[in-house]
Amino acid sequence: MYQSSLRRAIAYWPEMYINFGIVDGQHAYGESPAPMRMVSSFDPQLFANIDDYAEALLNGNGYSLHKYTPVECAQWLEDFSRTGSMCLESARSTVADPNAPAFRRLYIDTAIQCRLGLFFGCKFRSAVLWSIYRKTNDPEAKSAALEKYRSARQAWIELAELASVYKRLTYGTSSGHWSDRIEGITRDIDAMEAAAFSSVTDITTHPGEAASAIAAALGRPTRPDAGTVHTPPERFNPETSLPLFVRVDHAVIAVQLYYRHVNQAEPWQSVEMTRTGDGFRADIPAEYARTIYPLQYYFGVSKGKAGDTIVPGFDGLLASQPYYVVRSVLRS
Q: What count of Cα atoms within 13 Å lies in the side-chain half-sphere of residue 274?
């Protein structure tokens, strides 16, 4: 009872968090599904969880969910981390006094963040590979999951060494030091190494080799060019339906419209768009447009074997609005 209460009291602290287990039976946060591969993002409409993504990969199209994948998120973290490290080393080679306290603070804190990004990038990939292993029993997936998890642990060890200049820290109900967390990471890795699914089980949805899924989990994800042109309407009339049209290139075979009131308490709606001429068309129904809220929407664009993509989606800096917003003619 005491341990259960303590578990619930521990705050999620991603900068120095207590390791969330990939393997069943390891540490989890009380308000989250467990293990980590089952956890949803804060925005489950746009970001796939690990198990769902692994299933989509094994079904032949990891982008078919029309969501950003864990491997894409891992690549973003890895790219930003490596770019940050390069810029940091460049700064250290050009600054007048690299031992000056102000620069040392900047250097240490930024270096910790860069390795933290590498940790999570490697861990996301490991979790995807572990999910592939559970669904296929392919030993290559397990080996790759362990290798990525060990790389994640090495990044954490390095950031803990950098953070040796700090004493024990406290955040909300959590406290400790980066070095305290290594044991939990190692425990999860040991559990992964010890676990074995040597025969087909009720969780083995795709028994056999999974070379293409493993390659996708380890590779650099690329989506096809959307090949679309869309001009969002300036306003919508809450008394009528809102027609939407997206022009597409010849490779697009289907488009799904996702829409919602700009109200996070409401679920998203979706409808398959109808091909017409050189594009696809769908209407947001009049009864749905009868609202005090603006409308937001985006498209899931399918290009067959080339994959699927999201329009408008994020830009290269992840700083753009990944959907369109239209306001009512009755409101400013």
A: 5
For residues 295 and 259, the answer to whether their CB atoms sit within 8 Å is: yes
Examine the domain organization and report whether 198 and 273 are in the same domain.
no
The number of C-alpha atoms within 13 Å of 46 and in the hemisphere containing its C-beta is 17
For residue 35, say if its preceding peptide bond is cis, omega within 30 degrees of 0. yes
End-to-end CA distance of the chain: 54
DSSP 82-151: HHHHHHHHHHHHHSS-TTSHHHHHHHHHHHHHHHHHHHHHHHHHHHHHHHHHHHH--HHHHHHHHHHHHH
DSSP-assigned letters across all residues of 174-209: EEE-GGGGHHHHHHHHHHHHH----S--TT-SS-S-
Question: Which pLDDT tens digit goes with each residue over 263-294?
Answer: 999 999 999 999 999 999 999 999 999 999 99
Spatial separation of the C-alpha atoms in residues 208 and 104, rounded to whole Å: 51
Q: Are residues 116 and 134 in the same domain?
A: yes
Q: Are strands 279-284 and 254-261 parallel, antiparallel or unpaired?
A: unpaired
pLDDT tens string 57-84: 999 999 999 999 999 999 999 999 999 9
Range of the domain at 188: 2-218
Fill in the DSSP letter of residue 292: S
* Cis preceding-peptide flag for 312 (omega within 30 of 0): yes
Final residue belonging to a domain, choices 193, 218, 243: 218
Per DSSP, the three-state class of 260 is strand
